[in-house]
Inverse folding.
């Protein structure tokens, strides 16, 4: 038992004196001190690196660069086109085509004299009430049940209408 | 973030010269444009004029018809009949009017004014073709059509 005690000193006192501790601390303390500002910056950088990224970053991750490039190409193409052009006024061709069939004076062409003669006929008929009701319904061009100035306007419009194929580019 | 900024800046550097060139071309390519009225006259001699129809077109030069105005005499003061499709789109138009009244012009009278947009420096040439002129009884009468350039 005495021999064992000689090799394994289990009752060795591990406590050190205060003076010895102070000497050790002085001996092994860091030579450079880190300012608190530097500590804070390092911590902030760590936060930025490890916390989840902002929503805008996620969107940019999903929207590929090719899509952005395609959108830019579309915008450039749109700018290169003149989109401000608008179609000009047009006449109701179907209505005029019907009117062109009405050759009031039967001379083989529709001109202003057809409208003029129809207008004179209507005026004449209106002067005589009994004949006004007997105005030939075949001149009811717009088929509204009465022969009046609207029919005259339709015939006149047919007389001055430009054939589509003959319209120049301007 | 740096990559996105680089893409945006590259796009701007690409787009700006294209747009600048386009606007420059637009400015330089714009031909000279002016507006001028063309007064149309009809001389029916001593016959009263009750109806007329004529066709107008520019044979040379580039024009657009931008408006049509009535004539000098009160019988034709109102805007005549014409195809609205001719405005701004055609260098040709058919114009016609009639009056069933008894107060009708005789001799040389202005029957219409055509307002034109003339594009370019070249002075256009015009052609007038009288389709028909008629008296109060709707009988065709001989008449002479002419035009005068207005300012």
């Amino acid at each position: 038992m005495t021999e064992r005690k000689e090799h394994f000193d289990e009752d060795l006192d591990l406590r050190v004196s205060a003076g010895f501790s102070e000497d050790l601390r002085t001996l092994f303390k860091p030579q450079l001190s880190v300012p608190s500002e530097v500590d804070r910056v390092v911590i902030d950088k760590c936060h930025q690196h490890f916390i989840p990224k902002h929503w805008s970053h996620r969107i940019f991750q999903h929207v590929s660069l090719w899509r952005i490039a395609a959108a830019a190409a579309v915008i450039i193409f749109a700018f290169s086109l003149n989109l401000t052009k608008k179609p000009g006024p047009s006449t109701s061709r179907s209505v005029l085509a019907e009117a062109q069939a009405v050759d009031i004076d039967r001379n083989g062409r529709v001109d202003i004299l057809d409208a003029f003669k129809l207008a004179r006929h209507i005026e004449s008929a209106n002067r005589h009430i009994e004949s006004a009701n007997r105005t030939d319904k075949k001149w009811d061009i717009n088929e509204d049940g009465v022969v009046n100035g609207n029919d005259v306007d339709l015939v006149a419009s047919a007389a001055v209408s430009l054939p589509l194929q003959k319209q120049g580019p301007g | 973030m740096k990559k996105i900024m680089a893409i945006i800046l590259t796009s701007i550097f690409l787009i700006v010269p294209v747009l600048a060139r386009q606007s420059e071309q637009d400015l330089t390519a714009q031909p000279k444009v002016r507006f001028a009225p063309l007064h149309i006259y009809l001389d029916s001699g001593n016959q009263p004029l009750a109806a007329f129809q004529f066709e107008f077109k520019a044979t040379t030069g580039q024009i657009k018809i931008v408006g049509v105005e009535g004539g000098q005499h009160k019988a034709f003061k109102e805007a005549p009949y014409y195809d609205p499709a001719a405005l701004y789109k055609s260098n040709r138009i058919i114009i016609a009017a009639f009056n069933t009244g008894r107060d009708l012009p005789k001799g040389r009278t202005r029957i219409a004014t055509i307002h034109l947009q003339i594009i370019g420096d070249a002075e256009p040439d015009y052609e007038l073709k009288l389709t028909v002129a008629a008296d109060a009884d709707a009988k065709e009468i001989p008449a002479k059509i002419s035009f005068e350039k207005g300012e």
Remarks:
- The radius of gyration of chain A is 52 Å.
- Residues 85-90, 165-170 of chain A have pLDDT under 50 and may be disordered.
- The interface with chain B takes residues 57, 60, 65, 68-69, 72, 75-76, 79-80, 88-91, 105, 111-113, 115-117, 119-120, 123, 153, 156-157, 159-162, 166-170 of chain A (CB under 8 Å).
- Residues 41 and 150 of chain A are 87 Å apart (CA to CA).
